[in-house]
Each structure stands twice: as structure tokens, then as C-alpha cells.
Amino acid sequence: MPSRRRALLVILALALLGLASLLLAVAAGSLSIPAGEIVPALFGAGDGVAAQVVRSLRAPRALAAFACGGLLALSGALMQVLLRNPLADPYVLGISGGASVGALGAMLAGLPLFLVNGGAFAGALAATALVFGLARGDGSWTQTRLLLTGVIVAAGCGALVALILSVAPENRLRGMLFWLMGDLAHAGSPWPALVMLIVGIAAAMPVSRDLNLMARGEPGARALGVPVAGIRSGIYVLASAAAAVAVTTAGAVGFVGLIVPHLVRLALGNDQRVLLPAAVLAGGALLTIADTLARTVLAPQQLPVGVLTALIGVPVFLHFMKTNNGVRHDKFSTNAGAGHGPSLSPNIKGEMGSDTINARQTPAMYTALPCPKTSMAGPNLSCLTPFPICLAVRDLEVRIGTVRVTAGLGFDLRSGERLAILGRNGTGKTTLLATLAGLRAPQAGSIALCGEAYAALGAQRAAVLRGVLPQVQRDAFPSSVLEVALTGRHPHLGRWAWEGPEDERIAREALAAVELDGIAAREVQTLSGGERQRLAIAAVLAQQPRLYLLDEPLAHLDLDHQIAVLELLSARARDTGVAVVMVLHDINLALRYADRAALLFGEGRTLEGPIDAVLTAESLSRLYGHPLRALADGGRRHYIPA
After folding, report:
1. For residues 567 and 586, what is the distance between their CA atoms, to the nearest angstrom?
2. What angle separates helix 59-83 from helix 256-268, to the nearest 10 degrees?
3. 44, 295, 371, 547: which has the fewest C-beta neighbours closer than 10 Å?
4. DSSP string, 427-453
5. Is the CA virtual torsion 260, 266, 272, 273 positive or negative?
6. Residues 183, 189, 194, 200: is their CA dihedral positive or negative?
């Protein structure tokens, strides 16, 4: 994750590159214009041929090229994040296909240029509306459904384009082909594209840190207080509009929206706060340079600009990819074995005999958690005196469609207590946990977190008070172990705040607690399943909530690390008064490391209460549909299949 200083230096360097590309575009051509005459000509000094060429021809075309390149790169970067697909580009939702049908249809009819541009814009909007309308279907849509619908609509538009080309007269084919490959010769006024670029980057930057979390998965982003639904809809509209304006101005220029975000990501990482403005500047510079070459290399003949963008970008991308892979290999090889081995950190490994913590033994104050006193978001609520009842559930009814998960469930979870949720596969444990986290509404009943309903708390304040570990973590884009751990600090930061030294200290301590501090710089996509699970736990630890809601925290972990994680959570509950709710499948570990248990039998039937009263041979045999019997071992009770 780049620092703010480094980010500013990168943006400044790319801005200078963009300015240089614009000056080159204005100076180069059949009429060479000295550098000293460019600025006076731009600002109206002189009325000679050179000044007229600069003001009327080259400057508008150069600005249009820069704006369209920036729009395509911005749209591509946003689409890749929202669809969590590195192969997404601005045209993935059929925008280019719709614009092509509209523009080529207008050309076939012999309409003037402004109507060709109007047809392209109308076609792009129509294709976008069609994709979203079809993908929505029954009122909801997924990323996969949207992507597949876009591919189908694009294929249909491609068939219509082929039909138009097959019946078009020969004297219009060249213009149509140039438009399909991108052509700025008839770009017209650059102002619509420039205004759209300014609006686009201004709208995207305030939510750029939210997009970092959405790139790692929407469930985790929602748990950290990101208003996913609103941001997703707004960014889809923004990305589609940016692509539509770019296609209307420059034709269907390929490559820029797909590869430029990857180039920036390889060079700078996936932090959207840096990637978005850097991609805009890099995309603008690339298309401006490509257009300059397109009109000068074989002058007076002009080439399609899309051909030049690929010829320039492909070698650069391959070079960056090769160089980047080599650096990462060297960097990671020194830590290849870190995080493995049977030994446990002293700060998380306790006596094997320690088990149940009584809530009455919970200390009255938070003293062990290293918490910052304040943040840009206000006081750090998770570091205040523990609330006596962390989670109050009353008459809770949860359904999945018509299937009832719970009916009339009620309990109080106090500070320092640990609740284990057990049940057979498919009984709704994950759904219940999401409901307890406030991520889905119950059908009936109420849930209070530290004395307040989720609606009263709001998404960000709720994210400060409770941390959620999703069952599955998938990273579509590369990032370091430390960057993932720092995502837990998101609820404590203001809209424009960057992670500071205190946030990094907390994240590194969380990594040390799960024995990952030795590989903080390693790329997350190189981790094993167990290491990835411990990293997800570290991110929740860095969040410093009062209530931990953990969906199968022991998944992918070997026995040694299962015990270590449960000891760590028990120590946090004992020493700092946090409450823990965890979905478990190991009956005996639940018996050892939980104070209370909730059993989900299916069809709304539940049993909740103190661990010794709930986990009996009779109730467990009924829960799992298989007889179990208890074994006594030195004062402990264990359950095995009968």
C-alpha cells in the first residue's frame, strides 16, 4: 500500500508525462511547430497558419485523445473492481457493441457526423440499459449474471455490425472500419469528454478506499461498513457513462481500458486511491501518443489509433509483467518458510488445560488491547469500557426463502462470553451469523449490539463495534499480507484519511498474534489456505471490535493452529472483555472453548444456553442424526460417535 507521499510523486510524474504527450501532439505533424510557439498559439497570440493549426486542429484532437484515453482507463479499472474480474474492460457490458450498431447504422444511412456521434451514444446507452434490464430479471442480479448478459448482448451487437458491413457500399466501408478500430480524425469538440472525465474522477475518488474493500469481496466490505449497494450502482452508471462518451468521441478504441489498469496495478499495486488517478493519466498519455503516431508515421495517410495503442502497450505490458514477477519471486523467496512449523507464539499459546472462561471473571476495563484513543471517524468505540451485554437477541425469526432457520430465538451474550453455533450442513449457521451481524434483516424479532439496534447505529459505527469473519475469502487482485490486515482499520478512518503509523502498528501486532508477521510483504495470492485463514483472522483482530462474529474460523487450519486461534480468542475475551460468536464443527473444541452454545436442528428448532447444559449426548445425537456417547477424561468430557 503506497504512502501518501509516494502516491503524490507517482501522480505528479504521470501528470508530467500526460503534459508532455499533449505538447508532442500539438508540435508534431506535417507542419512542424517550434516549442516556443506552442503556448502563444494556444492562448490566441498570432493568427498565422501555425496558430490556426494548433487552435483549430491539433489541440482539440489532442485533448479529445487524452480525455478518451483517461475515460477508457477509468471505466476499465472500475469495471475490473466491481466485477472482480481482471479481464473486464469498458466494453464488457456491450457498450462498444451498442455504440457500433448506432454509429454504423447512421453511416449506412448517410447521416452527418453529429448524428453519427448521436447514434453511437444512443446505441451505447441502449445496450447498457438492455444489459442491466435483462440481468436484473427477478429483481436481483449477480456479477456473473451481469457479465454473462453483457457477453450475450455484445455478441448480438457484433452480428448486427457484421450485417451492416456486409450490405454497406464500398465507399463507406473504410470509414466504418476506422470507426470500429478507433479514429480521432473526426473527434469534434473535446469538451464533452473532458467534462465527463472530470466528473468521473471526482465521483470515484471519494469512494476509492471503499472500492479497495469491494475488490476483496462484497460481504467483507459490507461488514466493514461500506454501503455496497449504493456504491455499486453508482459506479456501474459512472463507468458505463464514461465508456459511452469515449466511444462516441473516438470510436471503439480497444486495449486501453483493459491493459492500462493492469500496467498501473503491476507498477503501483491495487490501492484504488492511487490506481484510479494514475490510470486516468496513463490512459490519456497512451492514447494521445498513439494518436500522434497514427497521423504522423505514414503521413499523409492516417492509421487507426486502436492499432497503435496495442503496438505500444503490448510490449510495455509484457516487460512490466516479466520484471514484476521477477521482483516478487526474489522478495518472497526469503520468507518462503515463514509462518509454518509446529511452534506457537508465546502470546497466543496457553496451557492446554485452560478452557471455559466465566463471564463473572471478566475484568471491568479494557486494558490489554492496544487501541488508538481517537480516529478521523471519532472516538474508537471498541476501546471504551465493555458494555455488560454485547449482543441481545429477542424472539428472532430467520428464514432462507421459505425455509425457517430460527423461530423465537433469544439470548444475551455478555462481555467476555464465547458462544459456539453448531448444526448440520445447510441448517443456516452462516445465515444466522450474518443476521446477528446486521448484514441481513430478520423476518421477526430484534437484535441489539451494545444496547442499540443496528438501524440506530449505522453501518460505520456498527463496523467499529463488531467484526465479521466471512466463511470464504477470495482475492481477485494481488496485494500484500500487510495490506489485507490493514483493511480492518477501515471503520476507524475518515473519508479522506490514509492509514497512519498507529494503524500499521496495530495491523502488525495482529499479524504477529497469528504468526504471520514474518511474511508481511508477501503477496496474499501466494499463501496457503491455512495462512490465508489466519490472515483473515488478523484483519478482524486489527479491527479491534467488541464483538467477534466468526464463520468457521478453524477452516483450513491444522490442529496446532486451531488450538492457537481458540486460545487467542479466549485470551482476548478474558483479558479485554470482548464477546465471541463462532460457527464450529468440532464438538469437543466447542465444549472446551465456549461458554454457551446454540444448536440449529433445522425447521426453526434451536437450543441455546450454557455449554454444559446444551452439549449433552442426547442433544448432540439428535442434532447430527448419529448417536454419540460421552467419555470422561480427567474431569473433562469428550464426545465420540457411538
Report:
1. 15
2. 70
3. 44
4. SSHHHHHHHHTTSS--SEEEEEETTEE
5. negative
6. negative
DSSP letters, 94-148, are SHHHHHHHHHHHHHHTT--HHHHHHHHHHHHHHHHHHHHHHHHTTT---HHHHHH
Alpha-carbon distance of 214 to 217, in angstroms, equals 5
For residues 425-444, give the mean pLDDT.
96
Q: Would you say the C-alpha torsion 108, 112, 116, 119 has a positive or negative sign?
A: negative
What confidence tier does 197 reach under pLDDT thresholds 50, 70, 90? very high
Segment 179-196 mean pLDDT? 87
Biggest CA–CA distance in the chain, Å, is 101
What CA–CA distance (Å, rounded) separates 514 from 495?
A: 29
Q: How far apart are the first and last CA of the chain?
A: 53
The continuous run of DSSP H or E covering 467 comes out as strand 466-469
Helix (H) or strand (E) holding 345: none
Together in a domain, 429 and 311: no
Domain count, the chain: 2
At 47 the pLDDT is 65
Task: Give the pLDDT confidence score for residue 517 in this predicted structure.
Answer: 93
Distance CA 590, CA 606 (A): 17
* Rounded Cα distance, 611 and 597, in Å: 5
CB-CB contact of 392 with 409 (8 Å): no
Residue with more model confidence, 147 or 346? 147
Q: Output the domain CATH number for residue 449.
A: 3.40.50.300
pLDDT band, residue 85 (cuts 50/70/90)? confident
Residue 628 resides in a domain: yes
Whether 59 is in a domain gets the answer: yes
Spatial contact of 244 and 99, defined as CB atoms under 8 Å apart: yes
Same domain for 262 and 365, yes or no, is no
Cell of 276: 484510479
Task: Centre a 10 Å sphere on the Cβ of residue 8 and count the other Cβ atoms it contains.
Answer: 12
User: Which residues fall within 8 angstroms of residue 365, CB to CB, at 6 or more apart?
Assistant: 385, 386, 577
Cα–Cα distance for residue pair 505/280, rounded to 1 Å: 33
Checking 613-619 for CB contacts under 8 A at 24+ apart, the result is 615/587, 615/590, 615/591, 615/639
Residue 179 lies in a domain: yes
The per-type count for the chain, helices as H runs and strands as E runs, is: 25, 14
Residue 487: all three cell numbers together:
483493511
| Burial group, residue 501, by CB count within 10 angstroms (0-12, 13-18, 19+) | exposed
Same domain for 461 and 601, yes or no, is yes
Q: Which residues pair with 637 in a beta bridge?
A: 632
CA distance 304 to 295: 9
Residue 337: other Cβ atoms inside 10 A: 10
Cα dihedral 408, 409, 412, 413 in deg (nearest 10): -160
Residue 119 sits in which domain range? Answer: 4-326
Assigned C-alpha cell, 255: 486495449
Owner of C-alpha cell 509516494: 6
Is 586 part of a structural domain of the chain? Answer: yes
Q: CA-CA distance, 194 to 309, in Å (whole number)?
A: 20
Of 274, 304, 326, the position where a domain reaches its end is 326
pTM of the model: 0.84
Say whether 269 sits in a helix, a strand or coil.
coil
Q: Grade residue 138 by pLDDT with cuts at 50, 70 and 90.
A: low
Query: In the chain, what are the helix, strand and coil shares in percent, each to the nearest 5?
Result: 60, 15, 30
